[in-house]
Structures
1.
Amino acid sequence: MKFISSMSALALLAAAAMSPAILASDSETHPIAIAIHGGAGTISRANLTAEQDRAYRAKLKEAVDAGHQILASGGASMEAIIAAIQILEDSPFFNAGRGAVYTYDGIHELDASIMDGATREAGAVAGVTTVKSPIALAEKVMTNSVHVMLSGAGAEQFAAEQGLELVENSYFNTDQRRQQLERVKAAMEQANQQAMAQLDVDYKFGTVGAVAIDQQGNVAAGTSTGGMTAKRYGRVGDAPIIGAGTWADNESCAVSATGHGEYFIRYHVAADICNRMKYLGEDVQTAGDAVIFDTLLPAGGTGGVIIVDHEGNVHMPFNTEGMYRAKRVGDEAAVVSIYADEAQ
Ligand code: ASP
């Protein structure tokens, strides 16, 4: 905790006494839950071969099981979400880490953020090009710096100082994403204004994220992405913006988002869902559906979220054809889904 050094032990005790959120850990064991996503978008049965379908599901299961294992053995929700996200970052299937999309200029610029619902501490990075695991760097920003968000060259310097693994930008090159960039650029030239709407199939929103609640009742959320294909001019999406793509608060819920980031920023989606629960008393399903279907969709914002609330309820609404997703609640087995007609 970065504030410990600047606060006396007495002040910390006083703060803890005033804030029930900080005191989430007590002798009682809370029900655990974890949910993950690997992006939402035009993901339909027609777009995936049976082999791809199987491979995506296997990777999602591996990630959700890894996070669940940590929670089941008494580990922290923060640790669980990082473990799950890193498995997805290391896979070329998802638009985060290894499988990050290309910018217009043919490189990769990655964004990520993390938030701890017990302390409301958060860390975020934007536009990093050589950090193998952006979610690990976001965690370092949260725990080892006095800042919340670092970007570009400064973030890379901090990553090096923290001893994180650095890679050449070409580490993130994949044929599939390169072809995607070429298709998007060709279409952009043809149909400037309509390009975004028309190209949904190629943007595909493969961002990754995780939310969890641990045995102490603490929630955490994290999101990691390569952003949107053919993004330009140092564009930053919602994923590193606390409140837009990521939010966690022990008094309400934890959320990780995926979708067309500009809308998620303007509608402050992740925090809006949790604040509806907190101030309006809505349940996780009502709050999530209100924002994804009633607010975002009419505005033109496509995508989805995964939510775990402070009681361990999970909801994963999305307004696209599909969203790669998986959850494990309590002792239940993993439920892995891709398309809209499957279990939420
Ligand atoms: N939300 C991400 C962004 O706008 C994209 C995604 O979810 O795939 O950068």
2.
Amino acid sequence: MNSAITSWWDTNWSGDRSEALVFGRTGKLIRVRGFGRYRKPSVGIGRSGKSRRANFELRMRAEGAGRKSAFRETGRAVVFRTNMSSKTLKIAALAGDGIGPEVMREAIKVLRAVEKKFALTINITEAPVGWAGIDAAGKALPDATLKLCKESDCILFGSVGLPDRDPTIPKEERPERAALLRLRKEFSLFANLRPVKLPKELSHACPLAKERQGTGIDILVVRELTGGMYFGQPKKTEQISAGASKATILRAIDTMVYTTPEIERIAHVAFKTARLRRKKVTSIDKANVLENGVLWRDVVTTVAKEYPDVQLEHMFVDNGAMQLVLKPTQFDVMLCENMFGDILSDEAAALGGSLGMLPSASLGSAGSTGQFGFYEPAGGTAPDIAGKNLANPIAQILSTALMLRYTFNLNDAALAIENAVGKVISDGLRTGDIFSASETNARKVGTTEMGDAIAAAI
Ligand code: IPM
Ligand code: MG
């Protein structure tokens, strides 16, 4: 049987509901959404990750490139990478400290609206982490919380760490290291994606002059997350003797370590994601001083040979920090080791209007969808504004969009969230961090009202 549909890509099945990117009759990629019934369900869709041939009968609505037509198809197609073997999305929600709980509440509100609109079943289990974990179970990452994470499809994370709390708790047991870094390592989440986008309506919130913003800032920071100085050994503070005076001198040591495979795998993520964007990777290093920088540059150059369609540029990190404020529009994907990525992603976030707008996805494999992931706002606990209904929930809400896209392959649901955020921004709703009195039609709102508006716009 001949079919107009020659192949499937990124197919997403849940029961008899389907979403897919399909090569249509013309060979062009179109997006389809619809409901399918398999004529022979037994040869239907395989388990997660398998490619199968399947008979199908679909009624679909094609969207994309301005077309909106309904059509019916029957035939046989190869289904690649099916991901949704069950309808239930199992999410561990770890709100943490500071503004974490209040922005998480809004993100869950938005998720519930998505659940309704897309007829999903979303199973969200909340568990304590960070100081909330220490208070509840004596540990920043309680055993029960870790167990829940292992049993879930993904982790939706808030933020942890309150620098001023209880100085008697040793640094190794404090939330940043004992919960956040531990989870990143535990699940081998080496690829951290931080998409920075300045909406045109928030041009005033960007610290750069209008002419430097060009036609818009749109940067993806790809940060290596499980190596470098965050984890390298030795890592310690030691006493050293101080010659004749015998005064105690302390010496702190952090070690920057990267191996070839660690650099290769994150480089692949950067090139793969660049292919879906403007096809340019700027690799950040300090090759003029650091051994790590020399190796980083060599390995990235080698990996780049597999992606001849993607332009590669190398940049020293100090220059990168400067170029971000001079000409941010030159960047598409910025590939960074762990600490450089931490620093530059905050700088880039400010260019995108506010750190409160920057979501992130931490993944454990190179660019594939349907995988375990960890989703968190890139900003911190912001203790100064916690509990005051002032925090911007958008970074947390956009993190749930990344979650739907990368772990559940629900691109339409992810887009629904991103579009809803875009709508409330263009409607003029602003939390304090993105508010300017000079804007006409802007209205200052609190965390809850912002969440309500986004949920309503789904
Ligand atoms: C981030 C944060 C964390 C980091 C802190 C809270 C440990 O700044 O995710 O960017 O340094 O990675
Ligand atoms: Mg940071």
